[in-house]
Design brief:
- The protein is an alpha+beta fold.
- It is 28% helix and 44% strand.
- An 8-stranded antiparallel beta barrel has the order 1-2-3-4-5-6-7-8.
- Strand 7 and strand 8 form a beta hairpin.
């Protein structure tokens, strides 16, 4: 019985890992594109997340890289690194850090 269970585990483990990668990729795919905030003091913030893990924005840092792990997005650029919790609902991206929450809308 133990040999049988170990054979099943050897078969199932790669499938579980593959499904985890696909799930993470699906979450990441939702973030690709350009997102904008409402105007704050006369200016709107804009950030574009590219499929290759890079971003460009009109605020500091202006360019860099990002990675997604679970519900967190890590943004690095200009010698700085920030980690935010993120949530995408429809065309709304919510970034939160401590008490601060920023909502951005996906541009078409």
């Amino acid at each position: 019985m133990l040999k049988f269970l170990s054979k099943i585990w050897v078969i199932c483990l790669p499938m579980i890992l593959l499904l985890s990668v696909i799930a993470c990729s699906a979450d990441g795919a939702k973030i690709y594109g350009t997102w904008e905030s409402r105007e704050i003091e006369g200016e709107s913030m804009q950030i574009t997340f590219n499929a290759d893990g890079t971003f460009i924005s009109n605020f500091d840092p202006e360019t860099g890289t990002y990675s997604i792990k679970g519900t967190e997005i890590n943004i690095s650029g200009g010698g700085e690194e920030f980690t935010y919790n993120y949530e995408i609902t429809g065309k709304t991206l919510k970034l939160s850090y401590s008490d601060a929450i920023m909502e951005l809308t996906k541009r078409d």
